[in-house]
């Protein structure tokens, strides 16, 4: 983008994006599958895929700053799946855990945290040091006055989440003396939702996946039932602010539907 004509077109594009975002509907909650770190490292000619993870972790702070600027209040990012610790190279997983601990410490060191931290996943699959660091950061940010919420999906799997929620529900009901017939007759969507790892947080309005892969990869399966999806061709470490704004502008132009009904009809019926 060196010619004056290209620079002018880019400035016009940025101006249009800012105008679209300013006048459009913003996603309250964005879910992000941060994919492409290892491919980014290979494309950059780096010796280790782990260096891509480090760059991706550093980039998360940039993206959170941009989300803050455009008033997205909830962000959930997919850090690692419940299967990753057992299936990936041990050295790669060790560095990933180290990066998670560094991120948690960074939140602890902030005198006025920008984000309240939540963790979604099976903490038992994580090393003790990583689990302790995350717990400390969650506790330290719980009382901060910020209305911004960051959820790290770590040791996470959407199917495992629903299974755990149903199991907890059955055990609680059985302990209260309910029969199988009673539980089946009274079971509701809200009963299961209240026991998910993300209970108490709004469902994502927009789910972004980087690196061109067109699948959810077991991410927020229950919560994203009516989310708008956007797939970016860009690898996560290269996902820039203008691309985030473009995703928001695209979201704001869509007519959201919940079970076939447009969002406007649902809101009108609720009045």
Topology of this structure?
Blueprint: H1 4-23, E1 29-33, H2 37-43, H3 50-69, E2 74-81, H4 84-87, H5 90-109, E3 116-120, H6 128-141, E4 149-156, H7 158-175, H8 180-186, H9 189-193, E5 206-209, E6 228-231, H10 241-252, E7 257-258, E8 261-262, H11 263-270
Helix pairs in contact: 1-10, 2-3, 3-5, 5-6
Overview of the molecule:
The protein is an alpha/beta fold and 271 residues long. It has a single domain, classed as Decaprenyl diphosphate synthase-like (Undecaprenyl pyrophosphate synthetase). Helices cover 50% and strands 14% of the residues. The C terminus is likely disordered.
Structural key phrases:
two-stranded antiparallel sheet; 6-stranded parallel β-sheet; Undecaprenyl pyrophosphate synthetase; alpha/beta; disordered C terminus; 14% strand; 271 residues; 8 strands
In a few lines, what is going on in this structure?
By secondary structure, the chain is an alpha/beta fold. The protein has helices at 4-23, 37-43, 50-69, 84-87, 90-109, 128-141, 158-175, 180-186, 189-193, 241-252, 263-270, and strands at 29-33, 74-81, 116-120, 149-156, 206-209, 228-231, 257-258, 261-262.
């Amino acid at each position: 983008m060196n010619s004056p004509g290209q620079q002018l077109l880019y400035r016009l594009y940025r101006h249009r994006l800012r105008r679209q975002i300013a006048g459009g509907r913003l996603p309250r909650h964005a879910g992000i599958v941060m994919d492409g770190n290892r491919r980014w490292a290979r494309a950059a000619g780096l010796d280790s895929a782990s260096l891509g993870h480090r760059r991706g972790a550093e980039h998360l702070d940039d993206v959170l700053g941009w989300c803050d600027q455009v008033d997205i209040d909830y962000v959930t990012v997919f850090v690692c799946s419940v299967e990753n610790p057992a299936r990936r190279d041990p050295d790669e997983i060790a560095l990933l855990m180290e990066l998670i601990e560094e991120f948690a410490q960074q939140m602890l060191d902030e005198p006025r945290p920008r984000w309240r931290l939540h963790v979604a996943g099976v903490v038992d699959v994580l090393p003790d040091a990583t689990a302790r660091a995350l717990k400390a950061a969650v506790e330290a940010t719980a009382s901060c006055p910020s209305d911004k919420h960051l959820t790290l999906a770590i040791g996470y799997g959407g199917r495992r989440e629903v299974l755990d929620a149903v199991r907890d529900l059955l055990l609680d009901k059985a302990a209260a003396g309910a029969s199988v017939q009673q539980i089946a007759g009274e079971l509701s969507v809200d009963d299961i939702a209240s026991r998910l790892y993300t209970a108490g947080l709004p469902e994502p309005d927009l789910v972004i996946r980087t690196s061109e892969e067109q699948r959810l990869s077991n991410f927020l399966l229950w919560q994203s039932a009516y989310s708008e999806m956007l797939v970016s061709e860009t690898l996560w470490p290269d996902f820039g602010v203008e691309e985030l704004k473009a995703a928001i502008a695209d979201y704001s132009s869509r007519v959201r539907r919940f079970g076939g009904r447009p969002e406007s009809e649902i809101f009108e019926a609720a009045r």
